[in-house]
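Meet the record:
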Amino acid sequence: MGLPNASADLSTEVEVDAFRRLFPLRFFEKHLLESIRPDARPLGRARDTTIALGAVASANGSALAKIGSTTMLAAIKMEVMTPSMETPDEGCIAIDFHMPPICSPIVRPGRPAEAAPVVAKQLSDTILSSGMINLKELSLVSGKAAWMAYLDIYCLDADGALYDAALLAAVAAFSHLEIPVVSLNDDGKIVLSEEQGLSDNDPVNKEKRKVNLGSIPFSLTCILHKNYILADPTAEEESIMETSVTVVLDTSSQLISLYKPGGAVLAYTSAIQDCIALTRPRVKELQKILEEAVSGMEVD
């Protein structure tokens, strides 16, 4: 008795899937009329988010961040460098963003992803301009030695809102970062004490230490489509509705940056204000998730 109904349900699913593939915009707009999205989220709600600290044992700081299916792995490696003459009391941060072919069908082997340098530049601008890292904390010996923090972020699954997940992974990795112990050797050079076994030499810093983070930035990307605003878009939504706005706020709700890379929809003042309004509670949510991850590491 159940077979005819099962067959009908299967037929309906096939028809819906076919309609979604052939007319994706019309499919989404039918959902938007009901203020809902195909994944059952309200328009202004972000996907479930998780952070796992210490994902890379060989790194000085690392984190795995997931927003929905979008997955980012961030790792920081510290190396001693000679500071520039212009900033003798400051270290440096170098940021690279990688999109290997495994992360998305649109990334082809042997061809760099177009989004990678764009996301890397945005991350660098945000992290350096937000005041999250005081570069003077990375100084070892004025004019002679300072830390270079190499931050590499790998996109493992690119299902939309890449920048949001990459920034979250970067912030989490810096929250997990521990500055290594270094010493002055007999030649007056800075060396890693743990690697060289130089416990008898004068330590420049006596024990591993955390970096004091200042204004921590978080972001939310929104899609603008007609009169609708969709928070935290999936890759499918981004491909269909091309106008996006990314808002970056710190934990005090101060605006760090606003990024709109183009698109057919004009970003009116009211739309921007609505995007900022959606970002404020999202920042508090991300801050809580990060704090819980840090607290969990401390307990472990």
Observations:
- Residues 195-199 have pLDDT under 50 and may be disordered.
- The longest strand covers residues 145-157.
